[in-house]
Amino acid sequence: MNEPSVPTPSEDPRERRAGVSRRGLLTGAGALALGAGALGGLAGCENTTTPQAAGGGGGEGGILGDPTAGGPVDAAGIPLARRDYPVTLPRVGDPVKAGAPEKGGVLRVYNYADYLNPAVVKQFGKENGVKVEVTTFETLDEAFSKLSTARLEFDVIFSTTDQISRLVGRKLVQPLNYDLIPNLAKNVWPELQSPFYDVGPRYTVPYVVFTTGIGWRNDLVDYDPAKLTPVWDALWDAEQYRGKVQLLNDPREAIGAAIMRAGSVNLNTEDPKQIDLAIADLIKLNDDVRVKVSINGYETLPTGRIVLGQMWSGDMLNAAISYLPEDVPATALSYAYQEEGGPIANDIMTVAAAAQKPVMAHKFLNYLLDTDVALENFVGYVGYQPPLLGINAEKLVADETIPPNLANTLVTREAFANSNAYLALTVEGQRLWDRGWQEFRAG
Fold it and tell me: In terms of CATH, what superfamily is 79-209+344-417?
């Protein structure tokens, strides 16, 4: 078969093309409903290092020892967290003590490219007497490799929920002092104050939430993907748009689309037959459609270089606010996702174990959980929604801060509370997914 078109093989799912001017989405922040009431304080951290659930098998190099309570574990030897199987991560080290933030010098942040509003970062530095330096990575594997070999040292690390146990297992992140992050209890959705992947919590605070679905130019596509069941059929039904269809350059997301198309919502399956069938379906997709494997649909969709593709909800908003040609209205963009069992996820922020400014790093996390700051970061630049009580999604749409036709890119608390997500796998499970992806990419 033809090899899938991959513009940049190392592209990361949430990487964005830097250097492109952005039209500001926010036209009237003062009209938004802000300032939700404070919630109850977080419970004090435990001192035990025993996970709530444990499993057999050593980790990466046996770093965390050999859990013996039974149940599957990931490569770090930490139990696989699931919504019905919450895990308290083992505590490695002690949280930093409260004290004056370390002013002067550089606060080093490790993040996906173009995933923070530069104006927000600059303002933090100005207010706190520190220069914030953001270094970017293209893939999570690259980030993990550079962190674990001590080639790079940072204060703040952005990551994903399926990676946190891996970071803990290699002692790359430190337990947080949540007294230094009061905005977590004050502003964040309760569902994410003590999440199932980090009960307590111990290491993380949430950054943004998003869904994965299908985005299209409704003026260039002659059918409505939203009416298809499942919606993923839209990719396979696009033969007439050969060469103008995108599949996300992310193994879990791409293979997951084929799994959901086959009628399953087990996004963390380790069944070889199910994975093999999904890979065969992806190969057929490429044979029929000559699919582009990429993550830059936020740019190529609004300009018509693709007409339909697998997209993240945040990138759909980016497409609307930053990349539409002047003669193309925002109403030309449409988005749909699988409401029953489709992917809904969140990204996370952590403090690095090797942080040189750990107190300032905590202050930076707390700053990004401030309602006004998070709103400016969201609608002024990144397009990804922070899960904060004071950001009223209905108000954003009513004020047309968010284009009404893209209202379904926003994630409600109810949807998130019952969400499905790609999570950590066992070593063998990860090998199955990686091997399948390599087969598809090899053509």
Answer: Periplasmic binding protein-like II (3.40.190.10)
